[in-house]
Amino acid sequence: MDVREQYFNWMYDMVFTKRAPSYVRLLRYLNSQEFTYNIRLDGNRADDGLYLRYRFKQENHLRAVDVDRCLTGKCSVLEMMVALCLRIEEDIMDDPVKGNRIHKWFHVMLKSLGLLDMDDAYFDERYADKVITRFLNRKYEPNGAGGLFRIKDCPYDLRSVEIWYQMCWYFDSIL
Question: What is the top-level taxon of the source organism (predicted)?
Answer without folding.
Answer: Bacteria
